[in-house]
Amino acid sequence: MMDKQLMILCRGNPIRLSLAAAPLLLAGCLPPPPVAKSADRDRVVAVRTVAVTEAEIQPTTLQPATVHPLYYSEVRPKASGFVSQLHVDIGDVVQAGQVLLEIDVPEMSKQREVIQARITRLQADEKRAAAGVNLADAQVRSSQASLVEAESEMRRADASLAAAESEFQRTSDLVERGSLQDRMLDEVRKKRDSERAAKQSVASAIDSAKANVAVTEAQKAAAEADLEAARAETMIAERELEELDVMIDYATVRAPIAGIVSQRNVEPGDLVGKASDQASTRPLLVINQVDKVRVRIPVPETDAARINPGDEVTLTFPSFAGEPPIKAAVTRRSGSLDRSTRTMTVEVELENTDGKLLPGMFGQASINLSGKVATNLLPARAIRFSEEGKAYVYVVGQDETVTVASIETGLDDGQSIQVRSGLLPGQRVIDAHLKRFTDGQKVTVLTN
């Protein structure tokens, strides 16, 4: 059996429907309820008010915080060659000085052999120069002995000449008195002249001996200079060898700090070069020291001057949402503003022996600023916010007339909000209320 249908006019449009569905559609076609009359809109609303109170609060600043390792080291090679052995990988815990990888440098090994052979030759030259010094020293001593001997001969010649002179004078006196013949005087004179000639010969020998001493001393000085030059050449070669040994030691790359290997950008067999040649390339390894971490907080210029080492810091991290916040203290402040961001970096050091805090973690830091300040407060429920995020309140005057006042807010502890401007202590505003109010609207203030 077919349902009976009904043609009705709904909001100006004809609709055919069954009798069973008619009640539902008719309900939707009913006209809207009448709009409230202006008298109802202007009806005085009863409200409760709260007063702006003045109190001392501990000012804080809430800023983003990022976890950084205590120390961060990029490992780059000092020597050039192929990576022969790789001893660590990502996540390995290393100690300072531990071998990380080794680089094969055969050309340096050959260069070391060449320098070592040159040192051996120079050491031989040094020994030869030392022998020359010894020889020159012996020659000096010999010439000095010859000089001493000549000087001794001079003393003997002086004595012989003196005796001959004395004998000549005695013989001359005897000849003059006629006691001796002239022949005897001639013999004594010849003897005296002979002694004089002998003395002159000895004097010449002394001069020759002195000259020989000067020559041998000069030869000794030259030999000593040759020895010093040989020693200097040997020392230079030895220092070159030490320098090469240092470069060879660089081929064994060691950990500069203790920490965890967080990056590895090298494979066994890779050709690597000196760090100066690849400063723009990625490091071979990156090591983070994370047994202690530093949390860096950029503080804006308005609060930077009021932060000092030791100020209390409360840290929260989304990764540990269910855990209590971390209490710490400001460890250090940079003392200057970054020109691009106009912020000052503040650091907090935290023990991290369990490795819970990871470098790169993001959180929030609430820092207690130095000194308490007097400020105006309102309950958070009494402050409204526009769609643009601007705060405002409904101020109730003595005549119970509403004024919409824009305010500037500050600290918010969840219960009360700081009013930085726009209100004075003692002014009353409408407490939490579902209704919106307009300027000049009359209200009735409830006393309890």
From TrEMBL:
Residues 378-430 form the Multidrug resistance protein MdtA-like C-terminal permuted SH3 domain. Keywords: Coiled coil, Transport. SUPFAM superfamilies: HlyD-like secretion proteins. Residues 206-247 form a coiled coil. Residues 74-277 form the Multidrug resistance protein MdtA-like barrel-sandwich hybrid domain. It comes from the Bacteria. It holds the Pfam family Beta-barrel_RND_2. The keyword Transport applies. InterPro entries: Beta-barrel_RND_2, MdtA-like_BSH, MdtA-like_C, RND_pump_MFP. Residues 295-368 form the CusB-like beta-barrel domain. It is found in: Cell envelope. NCBIfam families: RND_mfp. Belongs to the membrane fusion protein (MFP) (TC 8.A.1) family. PANTHER family: MULTIDRUG RESISTANCE PROTEIN MDTA, RAGD PROTEIN. This is Toluene efflux pump periplasmic linker protein TtgG. It comes from Stieleria magnilauensis.
